[in-house]
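Following up on my earlier thread - several people asked me to post the actual chain instead of describing it. Fair enough. Here it is, all 240 residues.
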Amino acid sequence: MLNYFWAVMIIIGVVYGALTGNIGAVGEAAFSSAGEAVELCFTMCGVMAFWVGLMKVAERAGIVAGLTKFIRPFVHFMFPDIPKGHKAEQPISMNIIANVLGLGWAATPAGLEAMKELAQLECERGNPAYLSENGSIKGSRAAGEILCGKGTASGAVMSAVKDQGKRERVASREMCTFLILNISSLQLIPVTMIAYRQQYGSEDPTVIIAPAIVATFASTLAAVVFCKVMDRSKKNTDLV
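Reply from S.P.:
Thanks for posting it. Predicted structure:
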């Protein structure tokens, strides 16, 4: 959808430039913007390398592990149906920590790992949409990990899989909650925006830190309230 949107915007710009006699300015802007994009990529690569490296140092120093334990009560509060000690807890915690510190690039791998573990959790729960007909997890790198451990899935689950046929997977409540938290995450240091502001000559790139904290705190609070309200609504519906 976004590809069509940008294509239409480009076409409108070119047509408008041609009709107003400014097609030369359109071409000049296109080439200059392309150059700026390359420069910005190099700048962001440096920033990314620095912060991701810093995250790795913190991880090896045990800081990340300590922070993970610190936010574990929050993780259990937001994901009460995830069994304690499940593998999904670690990547979820690391993703939240990385986002709070403004390390969006470091948060991405942890987010992908968290989604894979949440898919594994759905398999363990016996959700047929997450199992193929041979009992392995659909689309997962852990294709050999079955509901009942290593081997084959239970007969009841396999029967349900065959009855439903090719059913599309639907995101679980935990997946939706994780995605909402990931999008609305509190940020103490908006590294990306600071880098952008510095690249484009801002006199004080860090002046946005306080407003960013306030804005992302509000968005996170709204996300937490929304997730808990929807979770309670879903449970009430299931009881009915």
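The longest strand covers residues 145-146. That should answer part of your original question.
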